[in-house]
Amino acid sequence: MDVVERILVSKEQLDKQVEELGARISRDYEGQELVIIGVLKGGFIFLADLARKITIPVDLDFMSVSSYGNSSKSSGIVKIIKDVDTDITGKHVLIVEDIIDTGLTLNHLVELLKTRGPLSVKVCAALDKPSRRKVDLKVDYKGIEIPDEFVIGYGLDYAGKYRNIQEVCVLKREVYTKK
Ligand code: PRP
Ligand code: MN
Ligand code: MG
């Protein structure tokens, strides 16, 4: 698409990462009750790929949250638009995200879900921008580390669009500086 400056993470790199994470998760939770919670909207593509690389039975559910809205900066306020309907009491929980930036979204979700009596709450993200972190967050299943660039694709949007690009791409600067 013409808003793409360059490809940062290729399809091949993503596939390999997803496969490794799926295998690790399958090993680690073997024989356990696991509820995987995808964080919408951004997490939907990664979760769809990851879920199919997991070889043990799991419950899948979704939460819809928003902290960025249409802005490129985190508001710091995590709005829950849709909660899960699965009872996570006495179960292991794994939250799946497309990207960790400041860490505020996941930090908030981990703390919220911990109040519901789960056996454990862990996090998994396809991408990580550690240079932007604002809170100390333990990332149990970490995907690919990326530099501090505005990225789109593989679930990540700019103003709601471009989530459907297959690779992780750097957005052209002129797209978000103009207007
Ligand atoms: C983005 C992204 C993560 C979060 C990461 O979601 O998908 O959920 O921000 O940022 P953080 O670590 O600084 O909290 P966004 O709020 O844009 O909603 P969306 O997934 O619907 O695009
Ligand atoms: Mn998101
Ligand atoms: Mg977004």
UniProtKB/TrEMBL annotation:
Cofactor(s) needed: Mg(2+)
Pathway(s) where this gene product acts: Purine metabolism; IMP biosynthesis via salvage pathway; IMP from hypoxanthine: step 1/1; Purine metabolism; GMP biosynthesis via salvage pathway; GMP from guanine: step 1/1
Entry's Gene Ontology cellular component terms: cytosol
Enzyme class, UniProt record, top EC level: transferase
Domain Phosphoribosyltransferase positions: 13-158
Subcellular localization, as worded in the UniProt entry: Cytoplasm
InterPro entries: HGPRT (IPR050408), Hxn_phspho_trans (IPR005904), PRTase-like (IPR029057), PRTase_dom (IPR000836)
Origin: domain of life: Bacteria
Keywords: Cytoplasm, Glycosyltransferase, Magnesium, Metal-binding, Nucleotide-binding, Purine salvage, Transferase
Molecular function (Gene Ontology), one example: hypoxanthine phosphoribosyltransferase activity
Task performed by this protein: Purine salvage pathway enzyme that catalyzes the transfer of the ribosyl-5-phosphate group from 5-phospho-alpha-D-ribose 1-diphosphate (PRPP) to the N9 position of the 6-oxopurines hypoxanthine and guanine to form the corresponding ribonucleotides IMP (inosine 5'-monophosphate) and GMP (guanosine 5'-monophosphate), with the release of PPi.
Family assignment from sequence similarity: Belongs to the purine/pyrimidine phosphoribosyltransferase family.
Name under which the protein is recorded: Hypoxanthine phosphoribosyltransferase
Organism of provenance: Ruminiclostridium cellulolyticum (strain ATCC 35319 / DSM 5812 / JCM 6584 / H10)
